[in-house]
Write a sequence for this structure.
């Protein structure tokens, strides 16, 4: 179902909350939902980038845009945001903020891994926990949990990131199952390599098979009601490979793909 069809059946005055809305995939979700007339609460860490995104959307005619700055590396800031979200009427939650980290395990600091775990695992769980009761009470809503196609395979040189996204995939599937008798729609989004600052933040430059973030957001929003969305056609065989190919072979293929796509040595 297209998002427009779903919105026709729902309350347009409730908020769409997007984490990681200042750039990349999250920003494209914000642009598309703003065009549908949804009031938005945009969340990210960099105030300047976030306000610039909000201003752009206002100039393009968005109905109502609010911003909330929080650093998801810091659990206290996430808890404060979670409390704030319990007081909002929400109909759409795009649980998207995340960071990547590549390199052999010992080449990054333990502190950097803790930060990744705080944002990719702890924050997305805490915020989901804050938003869900309101959705259950009103018995409708759309939740998009942004994982990664890489969550389906263990990937050396990208081990903590892919493990964090394996958590997101497992968590999102189980949560959708628990709520299958409600009118809340859950979508697990499994993007492949997408051209966003996600890669430059890791000093990487994707070379091939790269999607535009707006196409990822568009395909997701055209697929409301589809439980698991793989926007990049080049990735459609990955779930099958992950199931039938022996783990050691799958990891070898994944490392090769990582080197080709991201220039990892
Ligand atoms: N790009 C890809 O190839 C790809 C592939 C598969 C999955 N994904 C997933 O897609 C999601 C979005 O990634 P993207 O590609 O759009 O990356 P991006 O352009 O780097 O966007 C990441 C967003 O997360 C926010 N963020 C980063 N650190 C934060 C922090 N400490 N606290 C709060 N917010 C923070 C950023 O805000 P600030 O600018 O304020 O820091 C930004 O809005 C992530 O979960 C990522 O794992 C991406």
């Amino acid at each position: 179902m297209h998002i427009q069809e779903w919105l026709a059946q729902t309350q347009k005055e409730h908020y769409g909350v997007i984490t990681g809305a200042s750039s990349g995939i999250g920003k494209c979700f914000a642009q598309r939902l703003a065009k549908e007339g949804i009031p938005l609460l945009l969340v990210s860490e960099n105030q300047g980038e976030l306000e610039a995104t909000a201003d752009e959307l206002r100039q393009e005619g968005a109905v109502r845009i609010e911003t909330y700055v929080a650093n998801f590396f810091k659990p206290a800031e996430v808890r404060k945001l979670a409390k704030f979200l319990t007081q909002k009427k929400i109909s759409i939650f795009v649980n998207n903020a995340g960071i990547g980290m590549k390199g052999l395990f010992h080449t990054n600091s333990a502190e950097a891994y803790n930060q990744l775990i705080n944002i990719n695992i702890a924050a997305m769980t805490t915020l989901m926990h804050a938003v869900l009761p309101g959705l259950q009470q009103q018995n409708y809503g759309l939740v998009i949990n942004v994982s990664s196609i890489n969550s389906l395979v263990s990937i050396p040189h990208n081990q903590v990131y892919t493990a964090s996204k394996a958590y997101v995939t497992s968590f999102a599937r189980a949560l959708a199952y628990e709520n299958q008798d409600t009118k809340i729609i859950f979508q697990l989004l499994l993007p492949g390599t997408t051209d966003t600052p996600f890669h430059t933040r890791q000093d990487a430059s994707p070379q091939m098979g790269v999607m535009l973030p707006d196409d990822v957001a568009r395909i997701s929003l055209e697929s409301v009601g589809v439980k698991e969305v793989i926007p990049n056609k080049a990735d459609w065989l990955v779930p099958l490979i992950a199931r039938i190919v022996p783990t050691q072979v799958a990891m070898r293929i994944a490392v090769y793909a990582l080197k080709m796509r991201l220039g990892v040595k």
About this structure: Residues 142 and 248 are 37 Å apart (CA to CA).
